[in-house]
Amino acid sequence: LKTFIGRMNATAAQLGMSRTHFTSPDGLPYPTETSTYSTPSDLLRLGLAAMRYPAFRSIVDRSFYHLAKGRGHHSYWWDNTDELIGSYRGATGIKDGYTDDAGHCLLFEAVRNGRALIGVVLHSPATGPAAGAQAAARMLNWGFRLPRAA
């Protein structure tokens, strides 16, 4: 486990995520609320890198994912709690989350007319995970209304 977390931090450093530190494989803060940390800029770097992998893209844009029982593992079922998936046209992922210190968070991407936009919402109001998706939708709507850069 320590080796894997070390690789996570080394990969983050290679990506230029100089203000990110992981202490657990799921990205949750352990053993304290501030053990794992990142910045919006670093999370965008991570999202851009992760979305370059077709297998990752094919999972994070689904409402749920089922992994059939295989050699050496049980059957698994995951529900995607990203509120944009299925409710925002063109949403393609990426990851939501919650901690007491960070509140509701969402790293997201959407694609419309061949134009991909990626963003991050941190510390959404405590009204629930949908608050992050609502903020993300407002940002995406604004971004898609802007003219394309030349």
Task: Summarize the topology.
Elements: H1 2-14, H2 40-50, H3 54-60, E1 64-67, E2 76-79, E3 91-99, E4 103-112, E5 115-124, H4 130-145
Antiparallel strand pairs: 1-2, 3-4, 4-5
Structure, described:
The structure is a single chain. With 150 residues, the chain is an alpha+beta fold. The protein has helices spanning 2-14, 40-50, 54-60, 130-145; strands spanning 64-67, 76-79, 91-99, 103-112, 115-124. The strands form 2 sheets. A 3-stranded antiparallel beta sheet has the order 3-4-5, with helices on both faces. The radius of gyration is 16 Å and the shape is globular.
Which keywords apply here?
150 residues, alpha+beta, 3-stranded antiparallel beta sheet, 4 helices
Q: What does this entry show, briefly?
A:
By secondary structure, the protein is of the alpha+beta class. The protein has helices at residues 2-14, 40-50, 54-60, 130-145, and strands at 64-67, 76-79, 91-99, 103-112, 115-124.
User: Which class do the helix and strand fractions yield?
Assistant: alpha+beta
Note the run of SSEs as H and E. HHHEEEEEH
Helix fraction, binned, reads: 25-40%
Distance between the termini: 46 Å
State which percent range the strand residues make up: 15-25%
- Report the C-alpha radius of gyration, rounded: 16 Å
Output mean pLDDT.
Answer: 93
Model regions low in confidence, pLDDT < 50 over at least 5 residues: none
Shape: globular
Strand order of the largest sheet: 3-4-5
The number of helical segments is 4
Give the total of beta strands: 5
Q: Quick one: biggest sheet?
A: 3 strands, antiparallel
